[in-house]
Amino acid sequence: MTAAAIDMKEAQRRAEETVKRSGTSFAAGMAILPKKRREAMHAVYAFCREVDDIADDDGISRAERKKGLAEWRAEIDRLFEGRPQFPTGVALLGPVSEFGLEKREFELMIEGMEMDADGPIVAPSMETLLAYTRRVAGAVGMLSMPCFGAKKSEAADRFALSLGDALQLTNILRDVGEDAAIGRLYLPADLLEKHGAPKLPSDIVGAHGLADVTRELGAIAKQKFAGARAALCELDWRTVRPALLMMGVYEAYLKKLEARGWDRIGEPLSISKLEKGAIALRYALAPPLGTNG
């Protein structure tokens, strides 16, 4: 469908519907934004969702997944030339212009999805894992900060990238069992080798050494959360409140994983709506501890 066939309001409506259908935890943070910034985040999320769905589509061949992502690369080129053809590309026109979203961050997100599409990813090196988290999570943060209204700065970039790593590493730790069931293993080979754990997804849940691997990766995630919190001291916490809602939820996941015991990694874990509501209320009323609020 071309831009001529779909107007901006319809494109924005489609992006909002993508957010609603997903049931994402990001929705609560988006909801507190002013209308234009909320629409921008809906468009950014819809882009991320669409490329992720292509990369994760097991019903098509690897070649078809790569073709779909290549089409999105071409769409990003068209978007920055002012002539997008996809509905979500049309929805991104305003945000790119008004908030100065960077083309390279869209390209990095696609690169991360290409890593999954070429996969499944199994026991990457730590270097490769962090390159992956920079793309699939760091790019989201870097695209989100201007939409939130945060001014471009070294501290804003540190916050976005540290938090992106923290969220993605926590997600990996939470989903070890779910990922293993579909042939994926994001835990880094460096730590698996160090602690004598297997590198096969089919063997990882309940394996010797897994608790030590996840405990160490959990410590890295905690360091990333601490890095985000340190950067936050140099920012206006109110501006990045949507990100803080996600930070609160994922810190809660990490704390639950740790409290439950790393020997139980791979078992399902969830946070209730009540707990998420309490986190949202906390950040709606007061700054996180240790900030200049």
What is the number of domains? 2
Order of helices and strands: HHHHHHHHHHHHHH
Q: Helix coverage percent of residues?
A: over 70%
CATH architecture of the largest domain: Orthogonal Bundle
> Structural class of the helix and strand makeup?
mainly alpha
Radius of gyration, Cα only, in angstroms?
A: 19 Å
Largest sheet: none
Number of strands: 0
Q: What portion of the residues fall into strands of 2 or more residues?
A: under 5%
Task: Give a concise summary.
Helices cover 70% and strands 0% of the residues. With 293 residues, the chain is mostly helical.
Describe this structure in words.
This protein is an all-alpha fold and 293 residues long. It folds into two domains: 7-101, Farnesyl Diphosphate Synthase (Orthogonal Bundle), CATH 1.10.600; 120-285, Farnesyl Diphosphate Synthase, CATH 1.10.600. 70% of the residues lie in helices and 0% in strands. The chain contains 14 helices and no strands. The protein has helices at residues 8-22, 26-31, 35-56, 62-80, 87-99, 103-117, 126-148, 154-174, 176-181, 189-194, 201-204, 210-232, 241-260, 273-285. Helix 3 (35-56) crosses helix 5 (87-99). It is globular and about 55 Å long. It starts with 7 loop residues before the first helix and ends in an 8-residue tail after the last helix. 42% of the residues are buried.
